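Why run this: before we spend reagent on co-expression, it is cheaper to look at a predicted model of the complex and decide which construct boundaries make sense. The entries below are exactly what would go into the expression plan.
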Amino acid sequence: MKELQKLLERQIKRHLGGISNFPEPWQSFLAAVSEAYSGFDTDREMLERSLALSSDELRQANSELDSELEGVRQAFPDFLFRIYANGKVRTLVGDAQAVQLLPLHDEEGRRAKPNAEGTLAGRFAQAILDAVRNGRKMDFEYFLSGDPLERQFEARILPFGRDDTIVIVRDITQAKRIQLELQKAKEAAESSSRAKGEFLANMSHEIRTPMNGIIGMTGLALDTNLTAEQRDFLETVQTSATSLLSLLNDILDFSKIEAGKLDLDSVAFILRDTLAEIIKPLAWRARSNGISIECCVAPDTPDLLEGDPTRLGQVIVNLVGNAIKFTHRGGISLGVKVLQQDATHARLQFSVSDTGLGIPQDRLAPIFSAFTQADSSSTRKYGGTGLGLTISQRLVHLMGGDIWVESEVGKGSTFHFTVVMKQGRGAIDSTSAGAPCKESSVLDEQSIQLRILLAEGNPVNQRLASRLLEKRGHRVRIAANGREALEATEKGDYDLALMDLPLPELDGFEATAAIRDREKHNGAHLPIFALTPHAMMGDREKYLAAGMDGFLAVPISPLELDALLAVFVARRMASAL
Amino acid sequence: MKVAQYQWSESLGWKPGPPGRLGESAQLVLLFGSTKLIKARTHVEEIRRLYPKALLFGCTTAGEIYGVEVADSSLSMTAVSFEHSSVRETHIPLTDAGMSHAVGRDIARSLDAQGLNHVFLLSPGLGVNGSELVRGVAEGLPAGVTASGGLAGDADRFQESYVLCENAPTPNAVSAIGFYGDRLHVGYGSGTGWNPFGTDRIITKSKGNVLYEFDGRSALTLYKQYLGEHARGLPATALLFPLSVGLGNDAQRVIRTILSVSEADRSMTFAGDIPEGCSARLMHSNVDHLVDGAHAAAIASVGMMEDSPDLAILVSCVGRKLVMKQRTEEEVEVVREVTGEKAVLTGFYSYGEVAPFVGGGLPEFHNQSMTVTAFLEK
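The model came back. Tokens follow.
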């Protein structure tokens, strides 16, 4: 038989005198009892070891947590407290004095009761109560009275557990000071910027007045008898002054917008008529550049609207003007469609597409920023303030819309913009309402017939040139030699003379000199353009020196001819207005 | 359903008398025995002769259940004669633990799905990844059919285990019985009764069901510390501290029990997966808690049927027996209280248990649990 468990053996010895006296069944019974005794011992011993080991492990885990927390404490710039429901405060992060940073006590040194209207300590106690009750974070900013450092604190009160709070106190003195300084700096900058804006607006206005004088007087002077040289000088003055004025207008608009002083009109207008008026002068410019303009208004676009047609026109003129500037061949189209409308308002989208240079992808984004052009070299080449698109963007925003651009280098660009206009009241009464899609031919220019003198000796060239001109609806008088030309101009009134240079009897130069000579007496000026195969830059000076206004290369390119004719069509129309 | 039950032990022979009741009418004979008796095919020829038409199905154990008795070094034999149901047996070799998933899937598929009601399977207790095996079974089962069963045992030795295949003890094959017929009602449940204690540990090094490190420290060393002088009894004594493993979130925790240890690479092999990165806690228990766990299993199982069962197969973990020692039978008695006197109880102490968590669910692999599979023919 196996050895009995110690306690059982002792019990048997004491009470029964020893095991050897027992019969066999008792022996195996005692063995089972002994095993149970040992089992209990083993179980208890295992449990005790488990408890000891587990406690060790937990203590170690706890001390690791403690050292982590200590690390956090060292690194934590703020103070951390736990405020218990019974009012007891335990400092979690901070030294022994830290608790004095909490506004817990009234001036009499008593613990404050919650009071939303009361003293600092009362309000703080109320904030803690609110955080607990509402179960959410409360922020509380305060000064401590009598603090020699005049510090400002922010307490973040977080509900914790059932009724406790964790309060994080941060010294925000420095942050507040910086915030205040920034605020002051911002206000100073804004006021200075406003003052500059106003100054600029005033200055622009002041400059505009004399500038109008210059342009007006130059115009009047151009209508007087002038020598070719004087005319040339004055025309240059006029061009320069006009361009300067347009710059000033841009700057004035821009500064007005920046200063928030630009107010939009709200007047009733007829969209299609307005567009026709806007496009007309642009079409002339496009013509003189040898490109066409097409305007297409979607049929369902409302016609009678209320808004600021002048500012709408300004945006269109800017976009189309740019398109003309940057497009050397092809055409420009202006499309208008309605995006959505109800009884009171309509959102319209305008799109100006050209077949011009296009804008590189990386220059697209900043194109609407002030003083930006797609390429700074374009400022040199094409002029302009670089404000046009910025102004357009601001105007479009003012009109409740947006502006954006799609472009591909070498293929062209499309500028889209949207505006919200009020629906006009009353019946639509527009001559153009039934004609949704118009080409620039709607403009009267086609009906303007120029009187052109063609001085050309070669019969083939005579036929070619006169056919080109007549096809465009103009009246052509042919002079076969210089003398005929001289005679014809004496009798007839011509808008333009095209002068071949090698002519029988009098050549082109001689005939021109004779015409100019005669004009010295009557003050007239017949625009004379040389027809020449020597289309080279240097030649221009030669023709100008000879009293001519320019030249047209032969064989005549229809595009160049159109561009030239457009200038004179425009001039005739302008004089007709 | 008619059931006849016998027990054989060296000292007492057959109990309650010589076997033979039900004879040719028995379709199924369940035989659970000690490694020594099963390996020696003790009485197998006699049983075959007495029950010529029955399928012989069984395995080696870490303790045999006969009624409410739990015995070692015995045979627990139960002959079953169904009136309205039938059974089919199937078995597939499992020569490498890596095949566990595929073998589980294939064995489930090898049973005719037509009319299949329930599957009960027995697997070797060693050289198997129980989680993978059961996952495979779940994958291969036809819809609406689930499985229960267990892993064969080898007392507290963890050296060899056998499943009976074609009347022969086989160390490397999985065997399953398919129960057919819609008049057979099957209930199942599992319960544990273990409680985690101590700190949460992160499994920092493991591979499949082999564990190396917790929190960067040797898991084997930790177990040895907790076992003290009982470390000599490894791997069996490690059953006193099964692991509670959190798979992903806290809600889903499984109990893992140890199968073997290797001093060579300081590893511990568990009966199921121990995924790296998961958290684990040691667990402990006492007799009362374990008995409560068994009670819960019985309630779940019997609760799935309208009447007391005719037969219940109990598969309980060897780890529980190690804790309960002489009081082991208390957890069988508590099952009896639930099933009622009519039910014949058989079963064994195992190295792993199989049963769904809930009625109608997929089978799951358990450790340290008591699972009850109850049968009623109506």
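Chain A is about 50% helix and 20% strand. The interface with chain B takes residues 32, 35-36, 39, 42-43, 45-47, 49-50, 53-54, 57-58, 61 of chain A (CB under 8 Å). Bring this page to Monday's planning discussion.
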